[in-house]
Amino acid sequence: MSFEIVKKFEEKIASFYGAPYAVAVDCCTHAIELCLRYKKIKEINVPKRTYVSIPFLSKKLNIKLSWVDKEWQDYYFLTDDIIDAAVLWKKNTYIKDKFMCISFQYRKHLNLGRGGVILVSSHTDYKELKKMAYDGRTPDIPWREQNIESMGYHYYMTPETAQKGIEKLPEAIKTKPKKWNYRDWPDLTKMKIFS
Q: Which residues contact 19 (CB under 8 A, 6 or more apart)?
C-alpha cells in the first residue's frame, strides 16, 4: 500500500471541512504539538475541562500553560490561530487561516482507532507540517535519497489508517454525530499531576 492513499484521505477530509488542505497525522495531540512547534508558541490557554494530553504538551514543549475556565462546544482556541477541534464533525466548519486539529481516535465520530488531521489554508503550511510529521522528509521521496534539512517527528498517518478512513467516511458523513462539550471532561486542575 502506498502513501498516495494518505493524500487521497487528506483531500477528502479537507473537502468535507471546507479547508484548502489537511495534513494527516497519527493522533490529534501530535497534530496540536506540530502546530505549536511550527508556530514557535510560548504560551497556550487550556480549558480546565479537556483531554489530559493537552496540558501535558506545555511540559513537553517547555511552554507556559494558562488555565481558562471556559465553556466550549466542538472546539476551542489554544492560541489565536491554533484550535483544538478534536471532537468537531460538521461539514464546512473550517475557520479560514487557522490551524484546526481534528481527532479520529476510537471514540470520535470518524473512528479509525487512532489518527488526526491539521486543517490549514496555506500550501506552505501544508508542506512544512507534512515534512515535520514525516521525520523532516518529503513524503513521496525515499528518505535515503533526500538531504533532510529540517527537524521532523515520526507522527505521520499510515496508509492502512488512511484506507480505513476512506472506507468509513461515507457512513460518517451520513450519520449524525454526538454533540460534545466541556462537561464531557473532568476539571483537570483538580488532578494531582497539575497541582
A: 94, 100, 119, 120, 121
CATH code of the domain covering residue 30: 3.40.640.10
Q: Do residues 20 and 14 make contact, with C-beta atoms less than 8 angstroms apart?
A: yes
pLDDT tens, position by position, 122-166: 999 999 999 999 999 987 788 899 899 889 999 999 999 999 999
64: phi then psi, degrees, rounded to nearest 5 = -70, 140
- Cell reading at 90: 460538521
Whether the predicted model's global pTM rises above the 0.85 cut? yes
- The beta-strand segments (E) located in the chain are 21-25, 43-47, 64-68, 76-77, 82-84, 99-103, 116-120
Let me know how long the chain is. Answer: 195
Q: CA–CA separation, 131 vs 176, rounded Å?
A: 34
**Domain range for 13:** 4-194
Q: Name 163's Cβ contacts closer than 8 Å, sequence gap at least 6.
A: 1, 5, 9
How many domains are contained in the chain? 1
Q: Is 26 helix (H, G, I), strand (E, B) or coil?
A: coil
